Amino acid sequence: MTKKTLKIIDNTLKDIKALDTKTLNLKKINSFTDVLLITSGSSSTHMSAISDKLIRELKKNKIEIFNLEGKSSPDWVLLDLGDIVINIMSKSARKYYDLESLWDDSLA
After folding, report:
1. 58 phi and psi angles, rounded to 5 deg
2. The pairing of beta strand 67-69 with beta strand 19-25
3. Which residues form the domain of 66?
């Protein structure tokens, strides 16, 4: 399921022109998720459009979203699919939290 789901997510992010998408494979080094996906939007409006389109596509493909946080946040929206966690971040939040450096050996 993860490969199919990642393909759907990747295609959706490309369609909506999400920025600087990184996929981190965490399966062997943690227990909270297999894949951490980080992407950015050019503005809060773009981030909202990204999350809305992702939610529509995931629901259309019957992929369960276990948790959604920050939907109205201008800096960070998180979608938890269980085996995949999607982070949609503003450029400033992404730079500040620097999630990639926490997991830099895990770039898929």
Report:
1. -65, -45
2. unpaired
3. 2-102
- Whether 63 maps to a domain, the answer reads yes
37-67, pLDDT tens digit by residue?
Answer: 999 999 999 999 999 999 999 999 999 999 9
Q: Which two tokens stand for residue 77?
A: 């929206």
**Burial (CB count <10 Å: 0-12, 13-18, 19+), residue 84:** buried
Q: Is residue 107 part of a domain?
A: no
Report the CATH number that the domain containing residue 21 is assigned in CATH.
3.30.460.10
Residue 108 placed within a domain? no
Tokens 């898929």 belong to: 108
Count: domains in the chain = 1
- Strand 35-40 and strand 84-89: the pairing is parallel
23: CB partners within 8 A, 6+ apart: 6, 35, 36, 37, 107, 108
- Segments in the chain below pLDDT 50: 106
